[in-house]
Amino acid sequence: QVQLVESGGGLVQAGGSLRLSCAASGRTFSSYAMGWFRQAPGKEREFVASITWNGGSTYYADSVKGRFTISRDNAENTTVYLQMNSLKPEDTAVYYCNAKKVSGFEYWGRGTQVTVSS
């Protein structure tokens, strides 16, 4: 069974940090690009960050550049991380992990809640 399971969300004060993890299992994800998206209440899901299959390139939304860092570990089962620093109340959202093949086929996790208090 293919699964992307996010963890690490929670409640943090503005200026604080959180590290999200996404554990991928059920198939080999080492050849997949991986990414993080988020959805705030009443808003559409938006791109946050992504990383190529080998970790050679990373991409970020302008709103998180310089504050968030995406990384991955393909050692056994693929795990993707999102280090979030200098968090702002506007970062409050459900954060979703995404795995995408070159063909466009993709998987999604169920999400983890991040709440940043002012």
Top keywords for this entry?
single chain; 118 residues; mainly beta; 7-stranded mixed beta sheet; 4-stranded antiparallel beta sheet; 53% strand
Describe the 3D structure.
0% of the residues lie in helices and 53% in strands. With 118 residues, it is mainly beta. The chain has no helices and eleven strands.
Percent helix range: under 10%
Low-confidence stretches: none
Order of helix and strand elements from N to C terminus: EEEEEEEEEEE
Structural class: mainly beta
- Number of extended strands: 11
Mean pLDDT rating:
95
Number of helix segments?
0
- Largest sheet at a glance? 7 strands, mixed
Which band does the percent of strand residues land in?
A: over 45%
**Shape category:** globular
Distance between the termini: 40 Å
List the SSEs and their pairings:
Blueprint: E1 3-7, E2 10-13, E3 18-25, E4 33-39, E5 46-51, E6 58-60, E7 68-73, E8 79-84, E9 93-100, E10 106-108, E11 112-117
Parallel strand pairs: 2-11
Antiparallel strand pairs: 1-3, 3-8, 4-5, 4-9, 5-6, 7-8, 9-10, 9-11
Describe this structure in a few short sentences:
Helix content is 0%, strand content 53%. It has 118 residues and is mainly β. 31% of the residues are buried.
